[in-house]
Amino acid sequence: MSASLTPGIPELLTPRLRLRGWREDDRAPFAAQNADAETMRYLGGPMTREASDAYLDRTLRHWAEDRCGKWAVELTESGAFVGALGLQRMRFEAPFPCAAGIEIAWRMGRAHWGRGYATEAARAAVAFGFGTLGISDILAFTVPANRASRAVMERLGMHLDGEFDHPLLPEDSPLRRHVLYRLAQG
Question: How buried is residue 158: exposed, middle or buried, by Cβ count under 10 Å (0-12/13-18/19+)?
Fold first, then answer.
């Protein structure tokens, strides 16, 4: 086990999962996950190792700057790396109202799909956001065709709040159109 890249990140435990800070030895399984075409189908396509490492480095900066970001998610029983999930500040000018500007997002390795891990981890992250961070609402968005992520959003109690064109994607991108989900505290 390597040293933490993110000391001070709160650890969250669920019945089957540990949401924890990132370690250097997470880079390889995260890169393998990000290189998988099916895993990355709605996220812009497979990433190179360099792009995956840069993404993780941005995640580490989010924790330092915003008090939130994506955790590394592992199985408590085996310690196996499952993916990344967390709360993050949106990095674009939102074309919709958003009080806190915080979204919940995840990417789980394909070997771990269909087991409820994203929902289980997301519930812990939402509780952290409302309880510890004191934010008033949490957003989530994805492309309309991403039924699996939309189902997680709905299991969290999020409500469809409209559609928008993602401003960070080119106008001709087939992934530009997004559905917006929202969950208010209380």
Answer: buried
User: Higher confidence at residue 51 or residue 96?
Assistant: 51
Instruction: Choose between 57 and 3: higher pLDDT.
Output: 57
pTM above 0.90, yes or no: yes
The span from the first CA to the last CA of the chain, in angstroms, equals 39
The crossing angle, in degrees rounded to 10, of helices 147-155 and 117-131 is 50
Report the alpha-carbon distance of residue 95 to residue 103 in Å, rounded: 14
> Which domains can be identified in the chain, with CATH numbers?
12-184 (3.40.630.30)
User: Strand order in 17-20's β-sheet?
Assistant: 12-13, 17-20, 70-75, 81-89, 102-108, 137-142, 177-184, 159-165
Mean pLDDT of 78-82: 97
User: In whole angstroms, what is the distance from residue 26 CA to residue 2 CA?
Assistant: 9
The label of the residue with tokens 């915080």 reads 102
Please tell me the distance from the alpha carbon of residue 141 to that of residue 166, in angstroms, as a whole number: 9
CA 157 – CA 110 distance, rounded (Å): 24
pLDDT tens digits, one per residue of 137-183: 999 999 999 999 999 999 999 999 999 898 888 999 999 999 999 99
Percent of the chain with pLDDT over 90: 81
Q: Which amino acid is at 49?
A: R
CA distance 52 to 27: 8
